[in-house]
Amino acid sequence: MAVRIHPTAEVSDQATIGEGTSIWHQCQIRPGVRLGQNCNIGKGVYVDAGVQIGDNVKIQNYVSVYHGVTVEDGVFIGPHVCFTNDMRPRAVNPDGSPKSADDWVLSETRIQRGAALGANSTIRCGITIGEWAMVGSGSVVTRDVPAHGLVFGNPARLRAFVCACGASLHSDHREGDLVVARCEECDTLVKIPAQVWESVR
Question: Could you state a single Gene Ontology molecular function term (predicted)?
Fold first, then answer.
């Protein structure tokens, strides 16, 4: 399948774009980026140098994915999601001189397979959002999110667990240190560590 790049997009010759991927109006894809197959990159998206993005990823309008962020397969990133990559950002050094690339410490962020980030959420750097997790719109995520976790709020807190289909999971039975949860819609069973399950607020 052909790669589709809108004429207004700026895509570096040093970026790798997978088959079937679409890059829409006014995007900027910088050198060293790897975009997987069958991705959909919405209007005004900025992908910083060296960012790695998996297959079947959907990034909605006006998202900036900064250096140090890794996005695995099947992730959904809603419009205006904000990533960061520096825990102590400053424009200048204490002596007033402009900061250079060597004057800051990169904090890496990983968004794991199938996770979904709601519109206008802010993702603090240095955390991992687990497989099939879901972040509510407008949330400020400041800590790791477990697999299948549903978080929302400011700061975002773990509120429940969701299936890969997006529906709620409910405790079915225990297997040792695991809670076996059942999806209320598709009847899928998901195993979640009991300690994590019991941390829901």
Answer: acyltransferase activity
Query: CB within 8 A of 91, min separation 6: which ones?
Result: 98, 99
Strand order in the sheet with 52-53: 16-17, 34-35, 52-53, 69-71, 109-111, 128-129
- Helices marked H in the chain — which ranges? 194-197
Which residues does the chain have with pLDDT short of 70? Answer: none
Residue 200 lies in a domain: no
The answer to whether position 101 is within a domain reads no
Q: Which two tokens mark 162? A: 């969701």
193 domain residue, yes or no = no
Alpha-carbon distance of 145 to 130, in angstroms, equals 6
Cis peptide before 155 (omega within 30 of 0): yes
Q: What letter would DSSP give residue 77?
A: E
